[in-house]
Design goal:
By secondary structure, the protein is an all-alpha fold. The chain has 1 helix and no strands. It starts with a helix and ends in a 6-residue tail after the last helix.
């Protein structure tokens, strides 16, 4: 299962790189 981890990593990285909602 590397697809799920890849997706999660991408989402997390994207969110960390461009934090829109910081609540």
């Amino acid at each position: 299962m590397s697809n799920l981890e890849d997706l999660y990593r991408e989402i997390i990285l994207d969110h960390y790189r461009n934090p829109r909602n910081r609540g």
